[in-house]
Amino acid sequence: MIYLLPVLAILAAKRIGFSHLGFKKFDSLTMGLGCGLIVISYPIIIAHNMLLTFLGVNTQGEAVMKMFSELKSPAWLFLTAVIVAPLVEEIFFRGFLFQGFRQRYGWIAALLLSSGIFAAAHLDPVSFIPTFVLGAVLGYVYHRSNSLWPSIILHFLNNGFAVCAMLAAIRFPDMFPS
Amino acid sequence: MEENQVEVRQEAREYSVPWTIVDTWLGVVLLIVINVGLLAVIFLFQDEVKRLAQGAGAYLAN
């Protein structure tokens, strides 16, 4: 939630409405495009994680899984990681940063810049590449739709899938290769 | 080179927003400040943060 502060402060200082961030109607085809791009990006992310595992580097997933297993209930992490984080991050990184950069540097440079900052803001060098790829996909979907909703929904789905997969790995460890 | 610049200028008009590039970079600076602050809180109050998350999780689950 705290990531909303810079956006709120700047928009309030300039007396700009929240609607400029991209809360608009969208073409449902862009959702299909986003789903396709997310599916295409998964092999890159899986290959990246496999390479790290092969090199003996701990991935962010392992750290989050440890945190999950220590919590009495995953409800809080689920609420923050699946509901709040995607909403706040999309408002900040796509609605505010990407749009701000796009009007000055063009969409490709804006995509690279906002995705790089999105990945760096997660403060985990090991997961920089997967987060950058996700940021680029969400940024491109935003660019094509010019609406924040498709990227918010895709971000919800992506994080929800990741959290469910982690919960499954904790509850049913026999189903997953160690 | 000049063609690219014209293209970017056209894009800028097409995707115009009511805040400037300075505001955008200011947002990035504020993000860094927030992240540094969050990291400091997490490092300084590790146990309290964990207890808070567990308490909130238990509250939401009930």
Write up what this structure looks like.
The complex is a heterodimer of chains A (178) and B (62). Chain A is mainly α. The radius of gyration of chain A is 17 Å and the shape is globular. In chain A, α4 runs antiparallel to α5. Chain A has one domain. Helix content of chain A is 78%, strand content 0%. Chain A has seven helices and no strands. Chain B has one domain. Chain B is built from three helices and no strands. The mean pLDDT of chain B is 78. Chain B is 85% helix and 0% strand. By secondary structure, chain B is mostly helical. At the A-B interface, α1, α4 and α5 of A face α1, α2 and α3 of B.
Poorly predicted segments of chain A: none
Chains forming the largest contact: A-B, 35 and 30 residues
Order of helices and strands of chain B: HHH
Kindly report the average pLDDT value of chain B: 78
Distinct helical segment count of chain A: 7
Oligomeric description of these chains: heterodimer
Q: Ranges of chain B with pLDDT <50 over ≥5 residues?
A: none
Main sheet overview of chain B? none
Largest sheet geometry of chain A: none
Q: Kindly estimate the percentage of residues of chain A that lie in beta strands according to DSSP.
A: under 5%
What secondary-structure arrangement, pairings included, does this model have?
The complex is a heterodimer of chains A (178) and B (62).
Chain A (H helix, E strand, L loop, with lengths): L3 H11 L13 H28 L4 H11 L4 H31 L1 H15 L6 H18 L2 H24 L7
Helix pairs in contact in A: 2-6, 2-7, 3-7, 4-5, 4-6, 4-7, 5-6, 6-7
Chain B lengths: L1 H13 L6 H24 L1 H16 L1
Keywords:
heterodimer, A: 178 residues, mainly alpha, 0% strand, globular, B: 62 residues, 3 helices, 85% helix
Quick summary:
The complex is a heterodimer of chains A (178) and B (62). Chain A is mainly α. In chain A, 78% of the residues lie in helices and 0% in strands.
